[in-house]
Amino acid sequence: MTFTLTATVPSRGVDVTLDVPEGRTLALLGPNGAGKSTALGLAAGTLRPHDGEITLDGRVLAGARAGRTTTWVPAHRRQVALLAQDPMLFPHLTVRDNVAFGPRAQGRSRRGAGTAADRWLDAIGLAHLAERRPAGLSGGQAQRVAIARALAAAPRLLLLDEPMAALDVDVTPALRQTLQHLLDDQTTVVATHDVLDALLLADEVAVVDGGRVVERGPTAEILSRPRSAFAASVAGLNLLSGTWTGDGVSTASGAVVHGYASHPGVAVGAPMTAVFRPAAVSLHLRDPHGSPRNTFRGTVRSVEPRGDLLRVRTDQLAADVTPQAVAELALVPGRTVIGTVKAAEVDVYPG
Ligand SMILES: Nc1ncnc2c1ncn2[C@@H]1O[C@H](COP(=O)(O)OP(=O)(O)OP(=O)(O)O)[C@@H](O)[C@H]1O
């Protein structure tokens, strides 16, 4: 086991146990205030446990008993990188020098660090912005550079705190898929309240609620058979499997779903899955002609309350819509309805 954490922070009502095997990604999935950032702070060394022990590759990073610290490795000696929502790039350095910062700090020559930075900028698709300063980047670009900067320092453990939270919905699928590639062999913990992050980035999920891990297991298992209230409330994504046509996923029902797929070299005919959330679906009685959206004609099967919204299930998908929309469209079981979803809201991934 590469990373283990057992810690309490009574002042925050947090008492968590986590472990991540080498090269794997664990998602901490939970609502606001659940304790996810606290767990990351404990791992990064910005917060001390009251009780417990934190280890990385068998080395104790922090230990405490009844409020007394027994072992403490400071943050900069942990080989742990924490990436927060705010990319916090150095404003006076170019993009390349930001990324080269970690290797330089570790003693690499200027040239060696620059070469490493160029490799990472290539991996995140921003080699052409190497000479820019952070003020000239979009939010999504800045977040990519922050990821490259974190990885260039070759951390033993990468911690991501809500990596998509501050970004526009239009850029999150692209960033998520970049992360998917980059995290392949990287031991990572990603804190998120977004089930798509868990589904697409993580091998395993720990559902955190009220400062405790309430559920833990392989991502697919947790999301298909959720036992905790939070996992159940966020599960239920639309997953449409089919084959890759070159610009969309062709499903068994004959629909072609367009979405964001950055996987290079996917062969036409390869199995692919399109994922989108019920809240991204709008329902109509007539085809909204001329709109660049995916459309799905179906029959309403059920209508159930879902918080302030209603979840309408058709034979093809689930949509979360307002009670007013359900009333206006007179959505009752048996009615034919057209669901639409923007391609920008659809993630497409292999499998
Ligand atoms: N700096 C702080 N000082 C004291 N209490 C804090 C501090 N930060 C968070 N808390 C409290 O600790 C608990 C856990 O918060 P934490 O930020 O870890 O949750 P989270 O799951 O990361 O939530 P979010 O998604 O909103 O960031 C909450 O009750 C919160 O109010």
Automatic annotation (TrEMBL):
Keywords: ATP-binding, Molybdenum, Nucleotide-binding, Transport. PROSITE patterns: ABC_TRANSPORTER_1, ABC_TRANSPORTER_2, MOP. Residues 3-235 form the ABC transporter domain. SMART domains: AAA. The keyword Manganese does not apply. It holds the Pfam family ABC_tran. GO terms for molecular function: ATP binding. InterPro entries: AAA+_ATPase, ABC_SmlMolc_Importer, ABC_transporter-like_ATP-bd, ABC_transporter-like_CS, Mo/tungstate-bd_C_term_dom, Mop_domain, P-loop_NTPase, Transp-assoc_OB_typ1. Residues 289-350 form the Mop domain. The keyword Metal-binding does not apply. It comes from the Bacteria. This is Molybdate transport system ATP-binding protein. The lineage of its organism: Bacteria, Bacillati, Actinomycetota, Actinomycetes, Micrococcales.
